[in-house]
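Handout, section 4.2: multi-component inputs.
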Amino acid sequence: MTENNFWLKKIEISVSEAEKRTGRNAMNMQETYTAYLIETRSVEHTDGQSVLTDSLWRRYSEFEVLRNYLLVYYPHVVVPPLPEKRAEFVWHKLSADNMDPDFVERRRIGLENFLLRVASHPILCRDKIFYLFLTQEGNWKETVNETGFQLKADSRLKALNATFRVKNPDKRFTELKHYSDELQSVISHLLRVRARVADRLYGVYKVHGNYGRVFSEWSAIEKEMGDGLQSAGHHMDVYASSIDDILEDEEHYADQLKEYLFYAEALSPRAVCRKHELMQYDLEMAAQDLASKKQQCEELATGTVRTFSLKGMTTKLFGQETPEQREARIKVLEEQINEGEQQLKSKNLEGREFVKKAWADIERFKEQKNRDLKEALISYAVMHISMCKKGIQVWTNAKECFSKM
Amino acid sequence: MDVNSLSPMIPTSPLSMINQIKFEDEPDLKDLFITVDEPESHVTTIETFITYRIITKTSRGEFDSSEFEVRRRYQDFLWLKGKLEEAHPTLIIPPLPEKFIVKGMVERFNDDFIETRRKALHKFLNRIADHPTLTFNEDFKVFLTAQAWELSSHKKQGPGLLSRMGQTVRAVASSMRGVKNRPEEFMDMNNFIETFSQKINLIDKISQRIYKEEREYFEEMKEYGPIHILWSASEEDLVDSLKGVASCIDKCCKATEKRMSGLSETLLPVVHEYVLYSEMLMGVMKRRDQIQAELDSKVEALTYKKADTELLTEEIGKLEDKVECANNALKADWERWKQNMQNDIKSAFTDMAEENISYYEQCLATWESFLTSQTDLHLEETSEEK
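Output:
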């Protein structure tokens, strides 16, 4: 299937399996890692049947390379985030181990989500490297490296500490920066507290399980109360074990929030806002440079020296330059000024283009975010409703047993 | 009251037992009502202590008046308990709340501690009032009615310190003997008590632990809701949803608080009382064994002709009566105690289950109403778009 046909048919992407593997790393040391199976299916329009067209294995680090590539080549796009590299915001029972099967499972879902988001992005889905990621198992890494994206990456984007004094940033970007900082901070806080709440809830449920055992032992010495105690104890066990599923569901909710935490990180310091800042900075620097050159030219032409210049000093010390020399210099400067003006024009245009494209994607992102978060909150409510219903049922059963004692 | 004189109120037949159970369940048959309240702190140069106000209302003839109000301190309750145990060594005397609680106590006069103790003291006196034998005990009457100075002088009467000490020494020495000749029904009783004691202690620990975990859950939930409000400040389009979730969490938080207080009012004190009861029961078993041991040692002495046979035979006769009375008293009281225990445990756990049901129902209503508001909104929005 050629690249063009690929996008004409509707495709389904899934990360269907995860497998533990051992291999040798770059330093020829043995390592264990997890590989994920990516399956791509094309859906025939006519009968809706899907046909498996490609399937290959990728590991997390390859996803990272893909994402870094997208960040460089599409600086005006809010690139979807990857699931977390290491487990964070864990509550005590949840494992922080990358090899833990629950973590691997949640990561599998996160990676699938990433690919689906890229595939549904109007601009990113057309990227050839993305297409190859899904279809070309061997050599993909070489192909990406050949694009030279690592070199193209503006190293200043990575220098998070460097500040650029930008005089006229687009106000909307400044607001966006503030928003993304706030979002990051509030979601982190929320996730931290949620983890603690989960921990406590787990404790409440599990301790009830101890009743089960003791009731059962007690029932052995009771004649009339025995049956009631025994069956009530069974319900306590049911109650205690119900928390495991409940909290697993909640973990999915936490993952949805985490995705937007990582999205917020993509908005601000590294990508879109930063890029705009840098462009604006370059623009302002170029304008400044141009202005100073123009001034120099003026001074030479009129003979007035308003600003300090080395040439001016040397002229004073070693004698005036000849009119020919002066003419020559003016001509050079005029050429530079022309060039500079052209450059400034194109930089301005570039800047405005970037702002326009970037803002369009940000609007798209905002709508996506609002939809997704609203849905997430609703699903959270649904989870709680289910938890309450289970609770009512178990305790109603227990109450019946107790009243029969 | 001497254990040799059988009170006509000790039930010996199932029929009279049924009557006696009714006696407790129907308050209109009660003729003695006691309340314990108003703890007050008293400071003297030597010590600080708390007294509780005790109000008694009665229609009984043997009481001089129909209403009494006195103040008593914990020491007085201890005295009463000691006198009851002395007079009725094989009856199951209700337990007193502990003297001190070792764990988690900062000072004796912490408010929660005083309130818990007050409730337990109230229970203690009412259980005595409901007991068919103990309710007519003379020391009990004095406790409820005498003024402070009257009580002090009354306390000074009775067996002296030395004779009480002598009793304790004899008790320790002879209790082992009584165990060897224990009749089977008391062996069964003892086994039950041992297992029951183990289990009720575990249940007490589990229940306390649940309370603690619920409290910590509540503390975390208090912080959880407000974060959503904070978030809503930076999200124009999500304000309703976020505020909605915050409000649900806060309501569930309040429901948790209610659940916790329900637990501490119904389940915890009942379970704890039965922990104390189980210790009480072991004491009762020991005393019964003691009484039996007295008899056994005299019988042994007769066998080896250690002393005057005629005198011994007479003593043995008296002791045999004593043992029979003690055993009968315990047997009857045991049945009564078991029935009460079953009712109390059943009702405490049923209450706990009810608290939990009510908690989940409240939370369910909150989340369901949030969900409806969100989906209604969604329907509105989609119809607007159309």
